[in-house]
UniProtKB/TrEMBL annotation:
Removes the 2'-phosphate from RNA via an intermediate in which the phosphate is ADP-ribosylated by NAD followed by a presumed transesterification to release the RNA and generate ADP-ribose 1''-2''-cyclic phosphate (APPR>P). May function as an ADP-ribosylase. Signal peptide: none annotated. Pfam families: PTS_2-RNA. GO terms for molecular function: NAD+ poly-ADP-ribosyltransferase activity; tRNA 2'-phosphotransferase activity. GO terms for biological process: tRNA splicing, via endonucleolytic cleavage and ligation. It comes from the Bacteria. It comes from Pseudoduganella lutea. Keywords: NAD, Transferase. This is Probable RNA 2'-phosphotransferase. Its EC number is 2.7.1.-. It is an enzyme of class 2 (transferase).
Length: 185
């Protein structure tokens, strides 16, 4: 189990640095969220989180949610989605979503969602999945899970933009209440 724990710690570290706080280690992201791999390895190690290229490759390849991606030439890395940094634009092309997408949340947030819909909070986008099981897993991270159905095609038809991240996660700015189907009580 120690290897798994190290893998998870590295993944959490990369999420923090590549999504929210590259300045914590003095790393620069380009406008599309890419960081130079050699620079990341050097700065992470100098700031107390030793990383090797092999470890980085293992974490990227082994991440079940494919949170991170290398550039085609392998010299750059970025988070696939989930950025709170407003300066990052993943440059994803708008896409037509499937009829229904799912959002996993915790039951304690349902009252607020019923009032205000889904908002990105500190992130740039609301994250949606194509399957109920993934949404259930996401919701489980925050408490008693609830899976919401989003009438994505209908929302898209009203002019709402959707994007699909490299790892398959669907992104949109917000979801008004009228496009959310809540589970029966």
């Amino acid at each position: 189990m120690p290897a798994r724990n190290a893998h998870e710690r590295t993944s959490r570290f990369l999420s923090l640095i590549l999504r929210h706080a590259p300045d914590k280690i003095g790393l620069a992201l380009d406008p599309n969220g890419w960081a130079d791999v050699a620079d990341l390895l050097d700065k992470a190690t100098r700031h107390g989180t030793p990383l090797t290229l092999d470890t980085l490759r293992d974490v990227v390849a082994g991440n079940d949610k494919q949170r991170f991606a290398f550039s085609e030439d392998g010299t750059r890395i970025r988070a696939s989605q989930g950025h709170s940094l407003k300066s990052v634009d993943l440059a994803l092309a708008p896409a037509v979503p499937p009829p229904v997408l799912y959002h996993g949340t915790a039951s304690r947030f349902i009252t607020s969602i019923r009032q205000s819909g889904l908002r990105p909070g500190s992130r740039q986008h609301v994250h949606l999945s194509t399957d109920r099981d993934t949404a259930l897993k996401v919701g489980s991270r925050y408490g008693v899970p609830v899976v919401l159905e989003i009438r994505a095609t209908e929302l898209h038809g009203q002019g709402q933009l959707f994007h699909q991240a490299d790892n398959g996660v669907w992104l949109t700015a917000a979801v008004p209440v009228r496009f959310i189907d809540f589970p029966a009580k």
